[in-house]
Amino acid sequence: MKQNLSDGEADLKAPKTVRTSVCIPRPDYEELERFSRKTTSSVAQIVRDAVHAYLLSRDIPHSDADNNGAHS
């Protein structure tokens, strides 16, 4: 059942991240899993960090408010 929320309430409940799906070659994924076990980071966190580092390396502007979970 869908809840009717005012605009302000909807903004408070809106997710600050976006779910996505990517296909990664099996050898790369297996390496990510190995690294994940060594560092106690999840594969998902490693991928988020890598995307963030990639964007920074390309000098692509972003808002920290829109980039929850990523490290500067």
TrEMBL record:
Residues of the Ribbon-helix-helix protein CopG domain: 18-55
GO biological process: regulation of DNA-templated transcription
UniProt-listed InterPro entries: CopG
Source taxon at top rank: Bacteria
Pfam families: RHH_1
Protein name per Swiss-Prot or TrEMBL: Ribbon-helix-helix protein CopG domain-containing protein
Biological source species: Rosistilla oblonga
Taxonomic lineage: Bacteria, Pseudomonadati, Planctomycetota, Planctomycetia, Pirellulales
